[in-house]
Amino acid sequence: MRRGIAWLPALVALPLAAAAAAPIADPEHGAIAKGVYSNRYFGLAYPLPPGWDEGLAPPPPSLLGYYVLSTPQPEAAIGATLLVAAQDEFFAARPMADAMAMAEDLRESAARTKGLEAGPAPQRVTIAGHSFARVEIGGAVLSRVVLATDIRCHIVSFTFASPDRAVLEKLVESAQALSFPAEDGEPPPVCLKDYASADTILHKVEPVLSGTPFMRIPTRIIIGRDGKVKHVHVIRAFPGQAQAIETALAQWTFKPYLAGGQPAEVETGLVFEYKPGGK
Questions:
Q1: Which residues are paired to 272 by β-bridges?
Q2: pLDDT in tens, 197-220
Q3: Cα distance between residue 216 and residue 9, in whole Å
Q4: What SS3 state is found at 278?
Q5: Phi, psi of 32 (to 5 degrees)
């Protein structure tokens, strides 16, 4: 290992949800076109409610793997908001077991927060064949309903909010139009915690990092059936750091992952950290 650089296995993974997605897409590669928010990575399509369209461009993902995927806005001032987001469970500050655990945590947090009202216990609902956790949070000014599901080791959430309960419920109904259309090609890779280890890495080249000392850089990789890295997604880093990590990981090789005795693609995570002087 090059002096001054450390890589650490990602912290937590969740079971892979059966959503078809392009294997080389990244979570933030979603877009709204013709009134539909589509995301190839998560394999979902969400027709926006009537009168809603694309809002502000989302910010970059955080160092903890939190993505603001889309913030649609209504054409008229109807007093409601809609947020589509995802939390990468490899890098979450407080990893949750699944979407239901996140919903329960939101409710417990609301119960402890002045001005908020915890709704009933989270419920499991099925939308387009996928299991979602639904949680309601009331407030003196604003009420929210969150629908969350597990896809590719991420918790994908739809947060609907409005001071008007009738408007809120109508907005939540729009989630029934969600779909998870299958795409031609291979299914998404198997998502595994800590697959990159001394037991599986056959060859590696350390990235030559610079920039902010001790900055932890979350990175996802897809390893092909032949053990070679076929896709690198540096979630948050300076351009030079991202380039160094991409160049290095392209040279790594792994023991192929076997599923049912057959080689399979695997998606896993790493955290790189620049430590000047080997500290």
A1: 7, 217
A2: 999 999 999 999 988 888 899 999
A3: 12
A4: helix
A5: -105, 125
